[in-house]
Design brief:
Layout: E1 2-9, E2 11-12, E3 24-25, H1 30-43, E4 51-59, H2 67-80, E5 88-93, H3 99-108, E6 112-118, H4 122-128, H5 138-144, E7 149-156, H6 163-176, E8 180-185, H7 199-215, E9 219-222, E10 225-227, H8 234-240, E11 245-248, E12 253-258, E13 261-267, H9 271-276, E14 282-288, H10 290-302, E15 308-309, H11 310-317, H12 321-334, E16 338-340, E17 344-347, H13 349-353, H14 355-362
Parallel strand pairs: 1-4, 1-11, 2-3, 4-5, 5-6, 6-7, 7-8
Antiparallel strand pairs: 8-10, 9-10, 12-13, 13-14, 15-17, 16-17
């Protein structure tokens, strides 16, 4: 059995108001957190001899923990999984990390960094509450530490951000020459700033960004993700292709197929409870089979620009994706949101801008 692993590091020194992921202030004793993770690994019941295909560490701020933590964690993984075919190991950072620590992460076993820059513009960063940009050229700083692959994450659709502001962001991002660029539309804080820009402006921002990135040699392969050829995120692609993955740490989600049934669970978003009893934090979310699972898989697959291959989908799930969409297919096609052929169904560019509406129809 081949699967992907996600490790959540919830610790932050600054709680950004726009971040919706589970995080807590401060830096813990990393050995205490490592022991809890080892306990969760021991409690997992994974059928057969499992190998790890991809490994991704997100947060929070993963680079608050030292390279020694990750070297020890890789050792824990090797006791329980086959890592011989590990194709990609990614660690997130906001860039506030020294060259020495970055080098340590590379030596620990990571080969890819996802840089959460959010914005290069000091004014926009102030609106976001993200603090000053830690390095003039964060991509170059990561490459110099020995990482062959670097991804860059940017936010758009921020109240107070104009088209010219975003164009400068994209120009700066392209100039820094990352292998991968993710564009995430801001989801505003529950109360107070930062707030989302008008929907029409956000849509125009995305279209212009996609045009500029395409001209610079980046290809969109998923709704929010662009890369140079061959530099797509393998780990995230596992999610969109309905692959098996296990999430470790508080708030982490997992999805594993057992006897044709997709079992989903998550860990409670409670660091104290997790440190005390990591196995007791697990909550089952759903068991999907038949048409329910096929619908979920169709939604995931349509996020990819390549769309869903109908014969392959039918062979795997027993349903033609066209029939799953049949009650709404004519309407979605007439609105220019979906395009289909004998072998494939996919979202149009307009469909990607209104993907949530399409996915609601599927459900």
């Amino acid at each position: 059995m081949s699967l992907s692993l996600y490790l959540h590091i919830p610790f932050c020194t600054r709680l950004c108001p726009f971040c919706h992921f589970y995080r807590v202030p401060g830096i813990p004793d990393w050995k205490v957190y490592l022991n809890a993770l080892a306990g969760e690994l021991d409690a997992l019941e994974i059928p057969g001899e499992s190998s790890v295909y991809t490994f991704y560490v997100g947060g929070g701020t993963p680079t608050l923990l030292p390279p020694e933590f990750y070297r020890s964690f890789f050792e824990e993984l090797e006791k329980r999984f086959n890592l011989a075919n590990l194709a990609e190991a990614t660690i997130e950072t906001n860039g506030e990390v020294s060259h020495e620590k970055l080098t340590g992460y590379a030596r620990a076993g990571f080969d890819r960094v996802s840089l959460g820059v959010k914005s290069f513009d000091p004014r926009v960063r102030e609106i976001l509450g993200a603090g000053p940009l830690p390095a003039e050229d964060p991509v170059a700083a990561v490459r110099s530490a020995g990482f062959p692959s670097v991804g860059l994450d940017l936010l758009y659709g921020i109240e107070g951000q104009g088209m010219e502001d975003l164009a400068r962001e994209i120009e700066r991002a392209v100039y820094s020459d990352p292998d991968h660029i993710s564009l995430y539309m801001l989801e505003g804080a529950e109360s107070g700033p930062p707030r989302e820009s008008a929907p029409d402006l956000a849509a125009a921002m995305f279209r212009e960004s996609a045009r500029m990135l395409y001209a610079a040699g980046y290809r969109q392969y998923e709704i929010t993700n662009f890369s140079r050829p061959g530099e797509e995120s393998l780990h995230n692609t596992v999610y969109w292709k309905d692959g098996d993955f296990i999430g470790l740490g508080p708030s982490a989600h997992s999805s594993v197929t057992v006897d044709g049934i997709r079992v989903r669970w998550r860990n409670k978003p409670d660091i104290d409870a997790y440190l005390e009893d990591p196995d007791g934090c697990r909550e089952e979310l759903s068991r999907e089979e038949g048409m329910d699972r096929a619908r979920e898989a169709l939604i995931l697959g349509l996020r990819m620009t390549g769309g869903v291959h109908r014969p392959s989908f039918f062979q795997r799930y027993g349903y033609d994706p066209m029939k799953l969409l049949k009650p709404h297919l004519a309407e979605l096609t007439e609105l220019g949101l979906v395009r289909s052929s004998a072998s494939k169904i996919r979202l149009t560019t307009r469909g990607m801008l209104f993907s949530n509406e399409v996915f609601m129809k599927i459900l």
